[in-house]
Amino acid sequence: MIDAAALAAFAAVLRCGSFEAAAASLGITQSAVSQRVKALEHRMGATLIRRTRPATPTDAGQRLFAHAEAVGLLEMELATDLAGLLPGAETPVRIAVTADSLATFVPHALAVAAEAGFLFDLVIDDQAHAADLLRSGEVAAAITLSSTPVQGCTAVALGSLEYPAVCAPAFFARWFNGRVSAATLAAAPALVFNRKDALPSMWAERAAGARVPLRAHYVASTQGITDAAIAGLGWCLNPVGHLSPHLASGHLVELVPHLRLETPLVWQVPRRYARVLAPLTRALVRAVRDKGA
Questions:
Q1: What is the pLDDT of residue 60?
Q2: Rounded to two decimals, what is the model's pTM?
Q3: Triad 205, 208, 214: Cα angle to 5°
Q4: Of 73, 155, 210, 275, which has fewest CB within 10 angstroms of its CB?
Q5: Mind giving me the DSSP string for 148-187?
């Protein structure tokens, strides 16, 4: 058996980033947190936390952290089953979302679900890789690309995000001179979220009819990419719902009007958590409908 207090202290260190912050969140001394974590490491026969800033899990610690997250969700389900007779769990639900969904409809859904007592620990990753986080147990649910459920999960289609390619008018005049081609796309700097972000290359290939080697600035922020495009640093793809005000104002223009990529959005939840996370699932479906993706 794993000691519940020790498991809670261990998980708090990873959520809060340090032993000191974990102690404050749990209302106990830093020494008590350290003792509980050391006892748990002795019990498990492995180092679980790297004493870095912020604290990070070892491979064994990551597996135990996933277990701690699962225990928290099961406690929430038990509290629901007992009609509120037990105190609500204070364990944040760890979910994988994309930066683009976070910049559009996800905050509205989280705000609604929070009214039911949820806390959230958001992992920001590309939707094409979120399923891997779900398979490994690193998150309790995820927004993914694939409509094929991860083993043991249910998949709920949310809709899709529509991506135009945009830039500032002066940038378009300088780099494209009215003509978007393989040559001009290869020369003009692109703004890319990270090295896993394939959307700009996919759009460029569709626009040019051939693969295009892109020169890129990497900006790991949806809002940051938009701000950089307005400033004239490069061209980018972002969700049309996020870009609409800037297109309407003329601060941004489309490279090729009406040539847009669409990426599906699929919410995947392990079946064992489906009931307790049902309020969040309903809130996400409603947010896409009401706010648009």
A1: 87
A2: 0.68
A3: 55
A4: 210
A5: SPPTTEEEEEEEEEEEEEEE-HHHHHHHTTT---HHHHHH
- The predicted structure's pLDDT at residue 140: 86
Do 156 and 285 meet the contact criterion of CB atoms below 8 Å apart? yes
> How many Cα atoms within 13 Å fall on the side-chain side of residue 246?
24
Helix (H, G, I), strand (E, B) or coil at 131: helix
Per-residue pLDDT, 74: 64
Which residue shows structure tokens 């597996």? 63
- The Cα–Cα gap between 100 and 240 comes to 10
- Domain boundaries defined on the chain: 1-88, 161-262
Topology of the domain covering 161-262: D-Maltodextrin-Binding Protein; domain 2 (3.40.190)
Q: What does CATH list as the number for 1-88?
A: 1.10.10.10
For 99-158, give the secondary structure using H, E and C.
HHHHCCCHHHHHHHHHCCCCCEEEEECCCCCHHHHHHCCCCCEEEECCCCCCCCEEEEEE
Mean pLDDT, contiguous 10-residue spans, the chain (293 residues): 82 88 86 89 88 88 80 62 43 86 92 86 79 83 84 90 96 93 97 92 96 95 96 97 95 95 91 86 89 58
Packing angle, helices 30-44 and 19-26, rounded to 10 = 110
> What pLDDT is recorded for position 291?
62
Q: What is the DSSP letter of 85?
A: -
Question: What letter would DSSP give residue 195?
Answer: T
Residue 57, Cβ density class (10 Å: 0-12 exposed, 13-18 middle, ≥19 buried): buried
According to the model, what pLDDT value does residue 16 have? 87
Return the pLDDT at 26. Answer: 81
Query: For strand 93-97 and strand 120-124, is the pairing parallel, antiparallel, or unpaired?
Result: parallel
